[in-house]
Design a protein that fits this description.
2 helices, 192 residues, 12% helix, alpha+beta, two-stranded parallel ribbon, 11 strands, Immunoglobulin-like, globular
Length: 192
């Protein structure tokens, strides 16, 4: 009986060692990797950075966007736009290696002065804020990108300053490069 118990203990130990050695345990440096492949490619031709040019590092922030309303609160000292905006859909993604991508579809003012266009807004910028709402300095702001008459726009900033630590991140979308106003914000708004 003792001999059988000892053999089983050795078999379990060998199996556990093999499993850990083949990404079966969390000590392999690939925690969160669920496909069994080693994706720690920092020194393997930058495969982990772009996968065909599509990615630059891990996403550290992803969110949908919500349109601003005139009665929304100031956020980090930035006031909502002076009109009730609507948004068909919008999203933002920030990657650790300095990339911000933002897309809006149908970001318009439904009534005059917009009449289902962005009205006087011809460009947008995006800013990342971190920490307490009392901090009024943005971590970074993108360059202006055009927004068309349907309210569609895309920002692709590949040199965005992504801080090593950003607690309570929030992204604000500014009209015409005006950092004192926002017309969309990371988050969501459900229709009543």
């Amino acid at each position: 009986m003792l001999l059988v118990g000892a053999i089983m203990a050795v078999a379990v130990a060998v199996y556990a060692g093999v499993a850990v050695g083949h990404d079966g345990g969390s000590g392999s440096g690939n925690s969160g990797n669920h496909n069994g492949k080693n994706e720690d490619n920092h020194n393997h031709g930058n495969k982990g950075e772009h996968h065909g040019g599509k990615h630059r590092g891990n996403a550290v922030f992803e969110a949908s966007l919500a349109p601003s309303q005139v009665d929304d609160p100031p956020i980090h000292g930035v006031n909502p736009g002076g009109a009730p905006w609507v948004l068909d859909r919008g999203k933002v993604e920030i990657k650790a290696k300095g990339r911000l991508e933002l897309r809006v579809r149908g970001l318009v003012i439904p009534n005059p002065p917009g009449d289902n266009t962005p009205g006087p807004v011809t460009t947008i910028t995006a800013s990342l804020y971190c920490g307490a709402d009392t901090d009024t300095s943005a971590a970074d702001t993108t360059d202006p990108e055009p927004i068309d008459s349907d309210g569609d726009a895309r920002i692709k900033d590949r040199s965005f300053n992504v801080p090593a630590t950003c607690l309570a991140p929030i992204v604000l979308v500014h009209p015409n490069g005006n950092p004192a106003a926002y017309i969309a914000v990371s988050g969501w708004r459900t229709e009543s």
